[in-house]
Amino acid sequence: MTNISQAVGAASAPPSLSVDDAIDRIGIGAFQWRLLAICGLTWAADAMEVLLMGFAMPGISAEFGLQKGSPEMTWLLTATFAGMFVGAAFWGYMADRIGRRGVFLTTVALGVVFGVAGAFAPTVALLMLARFLTGFAIGGTLPVDYAMMAEFVPTSWRGRFLVYLESFWAVGTILVAGLAWFLSTQLPPEDAWRWLLGLAAVPGLIGLLARFGIPDSPRHLLLRGQGRQARAAVEQVAHANGEPQALGEQELAQPAADVRVSPADLLRGSLGRRTVLLGLVWFGLSLGYYGIFSWLPSFLKAGGMDLGAVYRTTLLLALAQLPGYALAAYLVDRIGRRATVSGFLALGAVGAYLFLSAGSPQSVLATSALLSFALLGAWGAVYAYTPELFPTRLRSTGMGLMSSMARAASLISPSVGALLLTGNLSVALTVFALCFAIAAASAWAIGIETRGQQLDDVVA
């Protein structure tokens, strides 16, 4: 009789529900838009931290007596990227090991602390250290924020939301360019750079305070055997979106198999091929993007622009990123992630050669705007595509590895970009165009389209 009762009870129990199905049933609403705003604010703050050294360098050089093209200038531009190279891999792995939320909070807090510390650095060496530690902290926001966003957004909206999140990079670029321009009109360069570093940490502080109400990823909680906490996280989403009865009596389905994985699994089998090709995309795009835009303010100034005009021009180029993101958000769901990434990268390769042939200030501005449009559209699509290609157990680790590939390129890019200032413009832009072309071919060679597909919990 006991066995019969158990069988009847099992038959009458509602079937379990996957996290994907639960999030899709709840739909898009206040929770996802709030998560986008919170992560976006931090992402804008990260953009400010990454790009501000290009704007701060004239003031730093004036205070510490650095010569144009000196090793100290290159090291200062490289220090943040070096920290991000280490931090992305470390924090991405930690997020898959201990959970998303702890890293979600810790990295932003450390980024604020070290960012403010740089504003008070009395020597070049201490400034380099502060910038390295800032990079180490903010390097962890990329893998965690994108894993969280991918795992909380319904399937039909996921691509657009991931591009929307990346578009906050343009917001940060506009803010740092506008802030640098304003400070240059109010203070001498040797004072303005300290205020720039200090004020750039404010958005991160606001973002940190807003993050405390976000739960951990239910997908990752299930993989760690925390079913009750996972259901509570999904119910929090349902209540925020005005769908408190969305789950009903159904339980969340446990993963099909408890497969032990390690970061080395990213390089095994079909997942290994995918990881290598993605790494080429991230490396090539990052080398070209940072090689051009981290040195562009100095390049324009060397061409005869005054500092105020340089900052205004950079602000205009940041505005050109917005239509690139908008088009990417449309295309990732219209023609797919793979074609969108490859197309924008190919346009970037063409734009690099058009920039090389520019012979007037107007054509320099126009081709720079085309590059800004194409490359930020590519970044938006890459950020939508990448987290969908990794299984949940390795999603943050995979995103961290891709970010490290980008930061490895960023460590090289200041040296290659310095060719822009020494007259070897054709060499530098040929390298960057090749990077974009190879990245476009690698994205196409991945051969997988994730548009409209639910995230997969099973390691390939």
UniProtKB/TrEMBL annotation:
One of its GO terms (molecular function) is transmembrane transporter activity. It comes from Deinococcus proteolyticus (strain ATCC 35074 / DSM 20540 / JCM 6276 / NBRC 101906 / NCIMB 13154 / VKM Ac-1939 / CCM 2703 / MRP). It is a multi-pass membrane protein. The chain crosses the membrane at residues 35-55, 75-95, 102-122, 128-149, 161-183, 195-214, 276-297, 309-332, 339-358, 364-386, 398-421, 427-446. GO terms for cellular component: membrane. InterPro entries: MFS_dom (IPR020846), MFS_sugar_transport-like (IPR005828), MFS_trans_sf (IPR036259), Sugar_transporter_CS (IPR005829). The keyword Transferase does not apply. This is Major facilitator superfamily MFS_1. It comes from the Bacteria. It holds the Pfam family Sugar_tr. Residues 35-451 form the Major facilitator superfamily (MFS) profile domain. It is found in: Membrane. Keywords: Membrane, Transmembrane, Transmembrane helix, Transport.
